[in-house]
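Hello forum,

I keep getting stuck at the same step: I have a sequence, I want structure tokens, and every attempt I make locally crashes halfway through. Rather than fight my setup again tonight, could one of you with a working pipeline run this one for me? It's a single chain of 153 residues.
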Amino acid sequence: MSSPAPAAGSGWLELVRWGPDGLVPVIAQDAATGRVLMCAWADRSALAETAASGKAVYWSRSRARRWMKGEESGHIQHVREIRLDCDADVVLLAIDQEGGIACHTGRQSCFFKVLREGVWVDVDPVLKDPASIYASGSSHGSGHAVGHGETGS
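Reply #2:
Ran it on my machine without issues. Output:
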């Protein structure tokens, strides 16, 4: 599987309808299964870096900085394809998820809650304890508190 080639020029970024805050929502979808794994945000430089590097880079609203998915957890997202929706205001990344975990809760997908009779129910298992993913001294951990991890909010 090859990474996307760096885009020629940056004119393609001008076609994206950026929000008033300079961000666009980005959906990460498993390229093999089609399952939606997460939704995050990107600014121009994060999306440009994603296209150039072939690894998903996002903008963290809570930390006010760019971050490469997996920089702390090791769960890197290798981008196979970048798509823009019909209104040009949402980006879709078809990705291969390293380690099979996209969510900072240790689950495959951030969309693990299902509404059943007015109650949100967790339906997907935790594949790896978040404390071990983000523990100090681990190969990819940085000592962030569990529950914060690599959230893109």
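The domain at 11-133 is CATH 3.10.20.810 (Ubiquitin-like (UB roll)). If your local run keeps crashing, start a new thread with the error log.
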